[in-house]
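Why predict the complex rather than its parts? Because the way molecules touch one another can change local conformation, and only a joint prediction can capture that. The input here totals 1169 residues.
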Amino acid sequence: MNYALVTPCYIAVAALLSIGLYGVVSKRNLMKIFISLSIMETGVNLLLITIGYVPEGTAPIENANFTKYVDPLPQALVLTAIVIGLSVTALAIAMLISYYEKKGSLEYKGGMKW
Amino acid sequence: MVVHPVLLIAIPLIAAFIIPLAKKYGSAIAAGAMAFNMGYAIGMFSYIYSNGKIYEMIAGFKPPVGIFLAVDALSAMLALLINLFAFINFIAIGKEWNYKFSMLYLLAIAGSTGIVLTGDIFNMFVFFEITAVASYALIAGKKDEKAIEGAIKYMVLGSIASIFILMGIALIYSQLKTLNIYDIATRISSMDEKIKWASFALLLTGIGVEAEIFPLNGWVPAAYQGASSGVASLLSFGPSKAAIYAIARIMMVIFPFHATYEIALYVGVVTLVIGELAAFMQEDVKRMLAYSSIGQMGLILIAFSLASQNIQNALIAAFFLIISHASAKSSLFLLSRSPSMGGAACKYTGIVGVLSIIGMPPLAGFWGKWYLMLAAINEKLWLVIMLVFFAGIVEAGYFARYLHKSMGNESKLNLRYKVAMVVMVSFTILLGLLPIAYKMASLPLWGW
Amino acid sequence: MLDIIFAELIIAAIITFFVGKKIASIIAGFISILPLFALIDWANNFGFKTISFGIERQMNISVAGITLHLGITPLSWFFALMILPLFPLIMLYSYSFFKENDGFYPFMLFAFASTFGILLSKDMLSLFLFWEIMSWSSFLLVYRSRDKEAIISYLIFSVFSAFAILFGLIILWHENFSLLLSDIGRINGIYGFIAIASLIIGFSVKSVLMPLHAWAPFVYSKSDEPFVAFLSGGLSKLGYYGMFLFLFTLNGVKILQNYTPNVAWNYLLAVVGSLSAFIATMLAIMQDDLRKLLAYSSIGQLGYIAIGFGIGTPLAITGALFQAFNHAFFKAVLFLAAGAVAYRTGKWKISELGGLAYRMPLTFLAALFAIFALAAIPITSGFAAKWLIYEAAIQQKYVFIAPLMLIAGVGAFLYSFRILYGVFLGENRYPDVKEAPKSMVAAMFILMLPLIIFVVFPGYMLDLMKPALSNAGIESIAHTKFAIETSLAKYNSMAVLITLIAAMIPAFIIYKARKHRITSFEDNYLAGEPYEFHNPSMHAAHNFYKPLKGVVLPYFEPGAIYYFEKIYKGIGILSNGIRRIYTGFVQDYAIYVVIFLLAVMGWLIWM
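Output of the joint prediction:
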């Protein structure tokens, strides 16, 4: 796919994924780790939408004025992925509350090693 | 008689949604749903035993546009395994927690069954996520420090895994514009080489985090150690088996190339050796069993990776290894709840479970290793055979120490727990003696 | 009929799980006599006229979709003759030995059924299947001992032997795609070599050939005596059955030699056997624990069989099989006697026992005969066996093996004397023990019988061996009922016996004629010593062989057990290192995931 509009999107995807990964790996605070995970998920969602791009297509809603539509399937996939990301984030925050109650701070110290 | 596999997924989901409305009857509803599932899975399995394979379209849309469930002999066997053990496990632990536990349990089972039955790759992803989220919550349900720590580890790695799976699906879709597994398989050769390999790597990494292969299994010791014994038992036979089935299905149907089988073989061997060696010096019982699980998953992956040339032997080996590991490890996790193996039920459960994992006839684990050897020697993989033997000897070492250390006089388990434990471990004995596998081998295991 | 015998064994094993001790031992005792009927019946097929019960020779069982071919061969008939009679007698013995039934009988019956199955296997899968069932049922009996080293070492070595045998078997399968044992002969080349070598190593774990004997001192000294009697009398013979089967009946020797025509692998086996005999005998002399002494003595005596197989001439193999037969019975009697002593006195160490011959005369008599056979005193059957092996070594001019064997023979006498003197003779420290219970004594005496019979009829033993040997293509040596003749010498047991009796008669008459005077132990005039009850160093068997110990022991440390412990600790260190991979920080795990992804992608795209 060699469209001029699409390349910046792919670059954005790569940037989001790397920033997210960097955040997961190097941050101490658990909240920041989960936020970085959200950033990574956003990156992948962007990837999915970008793949469905059809040049000069419009939003995939039936309209008599347009003949070309962007591929609707990835948009459905992205909807699902967003919901999944939401549920994981919600569960993560609930667990962080519990973690904070037990340890007194959100700093990740690592446990159960070896 | 028409069999609708979708009921196996739908009934637990509906029951899970009903439970918050009827909080007091939570465990009863869950038990009922799982009993139905178990019965239906047995029925479906016997239908496939005599008829071969079934597929079902959801909502009437024909593939490749619609989602459909494709059940062949291996899927039916795994679905039966998951649902049957879910019911038995629930007998042991169902009354302990409140209704929330029942709900999460049903979700995890529905998700695992969905992974096993589906024929659409994004559907598989969705079920992965359902299973994973339910498992995160189940592990953390014990609410002490270790449980939260284990759940957090699993959650971070699981999220990264789901991101990678989604990337892999995106790459496949971008080239082939279809999400149906079998449709992808027929058109895989029209895919750009680099993107094909990239998508396989992404899918392997993503699903491999759930399937506990090295080096993606950092979460495994922490999660199993932190979870309560019933949840650890569920993790042994549910999500991990479904995930390794998913890897096998993807590898054998979509990417049946020599390079992928080779990678799977190397990864499997490394997983086996590292898992068993790491288990050798463990002091904590649950952690030791977790590392042993990693080793066994490596063994199952080796079995699947030999399926390129010797599909018959390799698949029978994988079948027996999955059964033996699921039943033995689950019952050993249930056993780990009591500090010592007192009484006849505990002692013999422990011994039979240990012997099955090591591979002593006539238990199911032996047939697994036997067929694995037959498949491996056909391709003259001497190093693989030697390493499997070495891993077996290491297993004997730490399991003997475990058996000795946990000799005791009394166990504080109630009757329901003991019954569940014994029934689970007796599956290795039964399947070692009954001729089911050989009949299954004559069925079209990969029928599409 | 054969399947009924098998089924009855399994059903009896399951039933004895649930019943009390008395009923369990009666059921076990009667059920274990059944295969003996089959044994007698099959003797007809091999040229001996006995009664016939109509038990068929072959049978195919179908289990789990696989057909197991079972049938009796001449070789397995001979080995069955030495192993199967042990069972009813051990059950008879255990009637009084155990206070309650807590798992002994069921697993013993499983072990029996699987032994019977091993002897009847005609194809590789059933051989391996029954071998493994025997492994885990004996493991469960070892597990009852609750001893850490015994359990761990037995399981590890059993699994190792199982895998070695499995490895050999699947190589053989792969060459021929047939599991039948009779189809093996057509392998050559490196695969055949590796297969046979692996099989020999696997079998020699069970038949305690050094250096794979490391489990034996722990297991033999801590488990129940009836089981140890079976373990050392019966199970070790199965290892040699396997070795004989693959080396001689199936021409393993030729396979080994086809691959390396210049290396004499037989000689290696004989050397290993002789070192095993020598070292184990020396170690046995030093032991104070009665059971450990018997364990090392087992290792030593079984080494003789390996020497016989290694030398390879018909004379040597005949001697080896004869020694195997003797060992089954005399070792069983010795372990049962040790068990009887412990049952009555509760003590294991020789330095704490003494003088039991006066209070337990029948046990003493049985042990005495067993020791005569062990030490190869002339005119016992043990002597005939060892004499044949010595003859063979001398004939082949093996200058390294023959002296080691002879020294081991002398050593056997030394530790036998230690047992006799320390446990049964010497001062009487237990004036109020009773004789062992009747069933134990009966079992020991019946087990002693074959040793006595073959004293006088060694030729008969060679007749019994003939079908097995001729099936393997080995000619039997010239013999009559009473005499064995080799190219170097002729041994006529009847002549020796008559001479002995003729010489003993005057001695007996002299003994009876004179009046005896019995003095007390403390009589200084007649070389007695003042008697102190509480000084252990005054005990006759305390620090027995101390000078020998001081000289010899430094050369035997460290032994094989030390190296196995080092290997165990080495794996532990490796394991500790690998555990460090799982650092406990989820960020590290995430980095592992990314590295894996990049590695797999890189591998796939650029290869």
